[in-house]
Amino acid sequence: MTAKSIPLDYFDPQVKPYYVEVSSDALGSQVVACSDDFFASKDNLIKVSPPISLKGQFGPNGALYDGWESRRHNSTYDWVIIRLATPSTSLNYVDIDTSHFNGNEAPQSQVFALTILSQEGVLKWTPGNTGWVEVLPIVDLGPNSRHIFELGALGQQGSWGAIMVRMIPDGGIARFRAYGIPHVPFVPKLLPADWQTAAPTNLLSVLIGGRIISCSDAQFSPPGNLLLPGRGFDMSDGWETRRSQESRGKYGPGGELYKKERKEWVIAKLGVQGIIQYVEVDTAFHPGNYPKECSVEATLASDDQLDDANWVTIVRKSPLGPHRQHYFSLEPTVSPISVFSHIRYNVYPDGGSKRVRIFGHPLDSASMDAVQNVDMAVVDDLVIPALPLTPETFKEYGQVIQGFSLPTSAPKGVHVNIANQGTAFKFHRLAFISESYPQGMLQKGGLHIGSVKAKSKLQAGKGARVKLELLERHRHTTQAFIPMGQEEGSEQGAYVIVAALNGEDDRPDLTTVRAFLATAAQGVNYNKGSWHHSLMTVGADLNYAIVEAQTSMAGEILDCEKVDVSTRIHIEIPPYPFDSQRASPLRKPLSKTNGQANGIFLGSSLSSLLPRASHSLDPIPITPENFKPFGHIITTTPSSNHVDTERAPDGLTVKHNRLAPVVSTYPQDSGAVTGIAVFRATKKVGLERSRVFDVRLMERHPYTSQAFIPMGKAEWSGKGEEALSVGGELLVIVAENGIDDRPDPKTVRSFLLPGHQGLSYAPGVWHHPVLVLDSTLDLACIETQIATGVHDTDERDCELLEWQGDKVFARVLVPK
Prior knowledge:
By secondary structure, the chain is mainly beta. It has three helices and 59 strands. It has three domains: 4-180, Galactose-binding domain-like (Jelly Rolls), CATH 2.60.120.260; 201-380, Sandwich (Jelly Rolls), CATH 2.60.120.260; 596-813, Jelly Rolls (Sandwich). Strands 15, 16, 18, 19, 20, 21, 22 and 24 form an eight-stranded antiparallel beta sheet that branches. The termini are far apart. Mean pLDDT is 89; it is low at 580-613. Residues 28-181, 209-362 form the Allantoicase domain. Pfam families: Allantoicase, Ureidogly_lyase.
């Protein structure tokens, strides 16, 4: 057997794009054994990144190198064993790179491969394992260069799961890359009976043979990265095109695409043919250069027929956002049992994407009876999966209300600034709220905040399917649902959102029905006139704040219009609670002596045991009654004299209307906008349990009420934002206005607001900026203001007073 050397200028553009780097650690390959890596680690050998020069840098053992380097004076050879991420692959080419090794490079190399016969693998990896086969004979290597070799029929036709690389006799290799085509697993000729509920497979995974066929542009990073596992580590390991070429290059006068829509594309072959259920597009680490929109097409064809193939749109042109996983269900016009072999991912007009995943079930299209055991009556039903909720996929129907771990993850157009004296990020105007009822219709007032106590409508521990029978809309008001924080001793559920656009017949357009599963950390705001299903809480109970306007007249169609859904549509709800993150009940620890420890009773106030400054206040639990002079409490247990309450016929939902009005007295020409923001609020420096807190700031909003709703804490692990740590409550400090038009220190009051209740300050009420105890909270903020977050706050929005030096407005003893 002789080795065939391949020129670099041919291999990189003509060969490499059509094979998978099966030895890469990005896929999960591992260096599992090594004879010696005294000078430089064996793990460097399979890194994705090109090797870098470390010239002039030294460690305890000598000069540093980005590669694998052994000791000198080996009489035979050094070796390394690489366990491939895929258990079965061909081996077609190897790239042995000695970059930056000059004078200490390995003089020769040799490569062996091993077939893994059992799923358990190999107990101990050694050169003595039975079955090693030479796939590359001894070859000469030079310094500081890449060496490409085509492997013979033995490597190309084998089924390999591990590689052994020899350095003869010793020295250094910067990178070793093996290229092949992972073997397709068994492809069923029949769909399983539970195909609509069974967990789908990523048909585009590189580990089962998914690969790139072609692309329109790869200026900054190659499209093959789209198929890698995980979410990457920075902007470099995605696919990124050049910036907009509008009226330039191929889109300029005389260019092949002159006056055509600006877009870039990638064609990829599925590792295995199959039916598609939904698509994931990830823009991780692309916060400012993600595509504006994307679409996905699919076809069933051989590689050489793609130019004439019939491409079917499976995801219509849809908006994308920064640093986020987006989930798209299959277009309703596509048969759920259509088999596809290739996809085309289009981005508009250009930009960077991290990953694309195609979820479905393998199915051999060559089988004439591929769907013979499929109940065609079931296929005639439209089954829509409830996918993770994101701002972009919900954009047609309304807005998503949530906090983000990174300010750059906020949806485009949402301005973010540091607020509350550096203790919070404020995500401005995530949602816009308004009403357009005919004048005189709202006898009980306009926009208001209420609460909903919703019991779980179904247990979805193993998933569930729900028939869609009814949709409703509110022509004249937006309607926001904001899950509130966790009550003591309870678990929090999730909720299902089903929405549709209005059709030309003024009824729901059922081709636009989409379903989402939202966590307790996400709220939604429906646009006026958006068709949607009524509140559907699953898994456990949830409390919500609701923001809307309504006449509250029984049967008033202007409040709520309902229509029956004639088409057979089912919503497929995934298992909840999620296996990876079951909500943990929030409970206060109890002592073994019924609330006593060391003989001291632990009552609701520990002020008698704590050091106190003169004239410090003890915060008290907040109630609708004691907070009434300053505003309103948003709670599912309002005061006994609150009578504006509705109960659902099934007894599972109780709604308390008009707990707090949304008030704005800004001049009409001020440009003020009413909306919902989110404060991701952290604990203030100096605010500690069992210590006195000096009140040095007080503020008021003369023209607007301002409500804060602590939101729930939850996550769908691996599919969205991570959950905040449990716990957290608010320390509230308020005062009445004095005769000098400043807060009157004689009227200062302090309250504790638990994380499962909200409050609304009346216009003009003096209060301390948000004070969070214990844990970070996401606070939905309902307010009207002129400022957008781009420029400094307009002075009409907020009047802030500050006491400095020895002067303080008040002192509050923070309870233990």
